[in-house]
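Structure in, sequence out. Go:
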């Protein structure tokens, strides 16, 4: 018999390791059991008399396909339209009751030996084993549409109307496996929804070629909504007179699991086609309402928040009522929110849109329109609508065709003053354009010069540190040149077609590019630096006539430097700046003034410089 001596401390350590391993294994088994139980409860919760579960209907179709004696059969995909709107308005429990009543009515219309199974939350598959002809299946689809259209009773004698889209696919013409058949059904159902829903359609190869990519995004959007992948970013709108934040605009973003952060240009059109725009509109408004309350609590003051509305949203009769419900839910006032609409002039004659705008304004919302689409006739239309804010972008206020535009801009500004409308200059990407907006009489600004759209936490920091105050001041020309170039790139990236979007890494490194531009001047020669400065917009746009005249007189009194001296002088900008700093120790001239004088006298050719502040 051999006795083995074990150190007591080692024995304690091994015991602890065994205990931790046991706990870890037990926790893992608990998670697996919890997952299986959740799966079971989900299937029980989704149980409707006569309706198979997802696994049951898939297994039934696959088993039937595996038989060798089958000729053809038909599958239908029933997808309820705008069902998420129903959930938003009445809640999950009541919406499930409505869905259950509708499916029970559909089951009663199905012939014998025809199966129906739940594929997703609001999607159901109908499986016919070939007992009925194609014409009979089309008639059945029409019957289902009629049954679904019938109003369904809710609590307190309320009724709700629902529609659905139905896709039809035949085996083996439209797919030889369950996966292929389902893919065909999803494409053709997407086409139905894009065309307004409440219809059926038979799959065709042409649909596959033209709609497959959009259909892929359609289902990714559905998953994104379910997985809460959509987010709201915020961009400040600055009041130059009060030197404070006038409002904060909420901008929709999609945190795509593989493509990264996407702007609405990639997906908003598909949302409008399929009806998901109504869900995202209500979600977006509720999100900015929550943000308003959060900012009020944190900073002990009111902040206006702005939100964009799409044409499809404005054409929804229930929009004012839905927004009013959200206001009551969070006990906030509509006066704290701005609703921005684009393409204002296209809504002439659309009574539902005009009615919605009037109702929203009576509730207290401020209504903002894009001035780009306005003309003389458009101003008359504004007078008939309660418009509170007019936004004018960079293209509208740029230098081109100013002789034509200037008179209308003057009229527009005069109209805004008389009718107490707020004018906002959009697309402010550099100080020169900010100054130009000031000269035009516009005092409220929005653009990358102040901030790009940032996350919810970052906008809190922006407000805390008041980063906008420095941007309202006249910046150093060199810094403005470097910053403006990078900010313009970021702003243009926001408007680019998504097929030409930069790689995600390039987006992350935008700030690093700015730092490199400012700090790494060693490799830039004097001529390159001077050309960089001279390539910016003329400063005559941002100074008064008096300063222009004084600058001109000063330039005429000076002699032009010889070209020989320019050629011999190969010192870089940083070397000259270093020499200036060394002279400071021998001179009593203030640091900032001396550095400014040296930059002006040695780096910039006074003869070619447009103006001087």
């Amino acid at each position: 018999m051999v006795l083995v001596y074990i150190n007591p401390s080692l024995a304690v350590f091994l015991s602890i390791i065994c205990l931790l391993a046991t706990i870890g294994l037990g926790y893992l088994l608990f998670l697996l059991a919890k997952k299986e139980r959740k799966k079971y409860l989900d299937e029980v919760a989704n149980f409707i008399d006569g309706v198979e579960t997802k696994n049951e209907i898939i297994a039934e179709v696959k088993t039937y396909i595996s038989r060798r004696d089958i000729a053809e059969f038909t599958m239908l995909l029933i997808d309820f339209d705008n069902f998420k709107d129903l959930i938003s308005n009445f809640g999950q429990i009541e919406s499930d009751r409505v869905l259950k009543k509708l499916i029970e009515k559909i089951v009663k219309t199905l012939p014998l030996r025809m199966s129906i199974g739940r594929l997703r939350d609001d999607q159901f598959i109908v499986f016919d084993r070939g007992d009925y002809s194609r014409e009979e299946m089309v008639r059945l689809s029409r019957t289902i549409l009629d049954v679904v259209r019938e109003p369904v009773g809710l609590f307190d004698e309320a009724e709700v109307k629902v529609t659905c889209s139905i896709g039809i696919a035949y085996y083996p013409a439209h797919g030889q496996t369950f996966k292929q058949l389902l893919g065909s059904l999803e494409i053709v159902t997407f086409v139905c929804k894009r065309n307004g829903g409440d219809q059926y359609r038979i799959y065709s190869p042409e649909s596959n070629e033209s709609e497959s990519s959009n259909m892929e995004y359609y289902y990714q959007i559905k998953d994104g909504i379910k997985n809460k992948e959509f987010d709201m970013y915020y961009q400040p709108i600055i009041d130059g007179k009060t030197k404070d934040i006038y409002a904060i605009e909420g901008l929709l973003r999609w945190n795509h699991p593989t493509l990264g952060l996407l702007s609405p240009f990639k997906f908003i059109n598909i949302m409008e086609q399929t009806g998901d725009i109504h869900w995202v509109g209500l979600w977006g408004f509720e999100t900015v309402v929550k943000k308003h309350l959060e900012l009020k609590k944190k900073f002990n003051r009111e902040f206006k928040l702005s939100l964009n509305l799409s044409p499809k949203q404005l054409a929804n009769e229930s929009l004012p009522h839905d927004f009013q419900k959200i206001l009551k839910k969070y006990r906030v006032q509509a006066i704290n929110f701005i609703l921005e609409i684009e393409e204002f002039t296209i809504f002439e004659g659309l009574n539902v849109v005009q009615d919605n705008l009037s109702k929203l304004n009576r509730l207290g919302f401020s209504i903002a329109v894009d001035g780009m689409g306005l003309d003389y006739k458009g101003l008359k239309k504004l007078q008939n609508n309660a418009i509170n804010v007019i936004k004018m972008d960079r293209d509208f206020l740029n230098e081109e065709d100013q002789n034509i535009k200037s008179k209308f801009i003057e009229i527009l500004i005069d109209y805004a003053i008389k009718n107490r409308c707020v004018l906002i200059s959009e697309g402010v990407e550099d100080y020169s354009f900010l100054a130009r907006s000031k000269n035009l009489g516009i005092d409220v600004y929005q653009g990358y010069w102040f901030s790009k759209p940032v996350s919810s936490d970052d906008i809190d920091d922006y407000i805390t540190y008041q980063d906008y105050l420095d941007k309202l001041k006249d910046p150093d020309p060199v810094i403005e040149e470097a910053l403006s170039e990078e900010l313009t790139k970021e702003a243009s990236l926001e408007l680019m077609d998504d097929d030409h979007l930069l790689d995600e890494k390039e987006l992350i490194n935008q700030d690093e590019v700015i730092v490199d531009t400012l700090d790494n001047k060693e490799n830039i020669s004097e001529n390159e630096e001077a050309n960089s400065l001279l390539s910016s917009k003329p400063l005559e746009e941002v100074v008064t006539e008096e300063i222009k005249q004084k600058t001109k007189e000063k330039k005429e009194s000076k002699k032009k430097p010889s070209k020989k001296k320019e050629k011999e002088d190969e010192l870089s900008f940083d070397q000259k700046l270093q020499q200036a700093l060394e002279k400071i120790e021998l001179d009593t001239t203030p640091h900032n003034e001396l550095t400014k004088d040296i930059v002006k006298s040695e780096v910039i050719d006074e003869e070619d410089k447009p103006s001087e502040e």
